[in-house]
Design goal:
The protein is built from 5 helices and 4 strands; from the N terminus they run βαβααβαβα. With 108 residues, it is an alpha/beta fold. The longest helix has 14 residues.
């Protein structure tokens, strides 16, 4: 099962991406009970552990939970595929601005 990391307010976009992918995906905004933050993070981590190696990301640029999930996916050795950012910012430019340096971006 694929995992789609996303900002909570972008749950509908994650569901649309699942349709485009054409197979069942774990979508935290739909599949993780939205209770205590600690429980959300633990549930998402368990789902990431069980998910396929390819993880997709839809991010609004502000969700800290999305950053946590991306860090968890990275630590688990998952391939992180940015789908889009709200505002059409490019991922290389975004991450370059975050670290103040150049990012080498390579798509599969």
């Amino acid at each position: 099962m694929k995992f789609i990391i996303h900002s909570l307010k972008l749950t509908d976009e994650a569901i649309e991406l699942e349709t485009d992918i054409g197979e069942p995906c774990y979508i935290p905004g739909r599949d993780t009970p939205q209770t205590e933050v600690d429980e959300i993070l633990k549930a998402n981590l368990l789902a990431l552990i069980e998910s396929d190696d390819d993880v997709y990301v839809i991010w609004d640029g502000s969700s800290l939970g999305t950053l946590f999930d991306m860090g968890s996916a990275y630590a688990l050795g998952k391939a992180i595929w940015p789908v889009y950012l709200v505002g059409n910012r490019s991922w290389p430019a975004f991450f370059s601005s975050m670290i103040g340096g150049e990012i080498k971006y390579e798509n599969k």
